[in-house]
Amino acid sequence: MEKEFIGKLKEVLEIEDHEVNMSDEFRTYDEWSSLAYLSVIAMLDEDYEIQMEEADFKKLRTVADLYNATLEK
Amino acid sequence: MAYLYYKGVGITALSAAVPRTVINNYEYTQYFPKEEVKEVVDKIGVFERRFADADTCSSDLCFAAAEKLLSDNNIDRTEIDLLVFISQTPDYRMPATSVILQHRLGLSNSTIAFDITLGCSAFIYGISVVYAMMQQSGLRKALILDGETRSKVYSPKDRRTAFIFGDAGVAALVERNEKFGESFFSLNSDGSREGLIKIDAGGYRNPSSVETLKEKVVDEYGNIRSDEQAYMNGGDVFTFVNREIPRDIKNLLEFTQRDKDSFDFLVFHQANNFINTHVAKKLKLDMDKIPSTIEKYGNTSSVSVPLTIASELKDKMDGEKSLLLSAFGVGMTWATAIVPFVDLKISDIVEV
Question: What is the pTM of this model?
């Protein structure tokens, strides 16, 4: 499940040349931007049926936080 | 939950007007680097849009569309008993723009005229209001004029909104006729989301002042606007739309016992390509039945649904057609309608 999630995250953030680990703070990635944010919330909606608002998203810091959010559903 | 239901009333003719000035979005690079602009434009799918000049208002676009509609269809102006103007960019704070258009179009003083101010879902709200009045026996013909100059509302220095919006106006003729079958409307509102899309100042809560006109840096990305320019929280609008729109459409389909594949066309508010394709995918809709103008006219707010019909369905509306209409926006408000058309006459688009 973790592996699958990381794969999806890499795909929507268009990450090709580095690893993604659960402890990473995703906002520090070069690929992170306000447009990348839209891609991530679209992915959460499409693949996990989670509609997350910005205020809640701001509380998430690491890839693990994102992944855990998909489990809470 | 309540739905509105009408019979024997429909739109018989439609025309649209757009400003002649074309904005090429890839070259809209006055305030942002070309590379960044390209990324945004590719994401939202708005490649061109039209901007009205300083002297052109929504009413001018609607006037041009109305003149075209009246002359193309040989309409006797004395038979127009109702004029509704839909916009969030009116000519003045008062009087209502509909009244000015009544005179300008040479309509009689017995014309019922008023404005509807609501935002992106307003055309669907508006046809429901007009259908309701037209179902009574007294009125002969009604004109819906729907125009927006959103280019004047948003800051070109705020990348969240600088590349999305365009200007346009439409005119729709509504008549009573037994040939029209049933139409259904679901109209909704959620004022707890008033802050998602908003102009903070310039009304009576926060009146215009020197302070409200000052440009300010408003966020960590360095976006700049004044309190009298609109802002939009695109992410939360996206989330809201994905929660509410598919649900509203599914509920209305269930209520009317209609299948999503039973429509000739499904016309959505042209918000941006990112939202629109996501919603269509989520509902597993047939993309061939979903006309789009987002790439050439951008988001024209309440005008986008009728503009997309006028632009993309010309010569495709002969005979009986069943359309599903869906729109959402500022408020938030959202609306779904199932509307029959019979031999809809669509004029060529006028450039102003």
Answer: 0.94
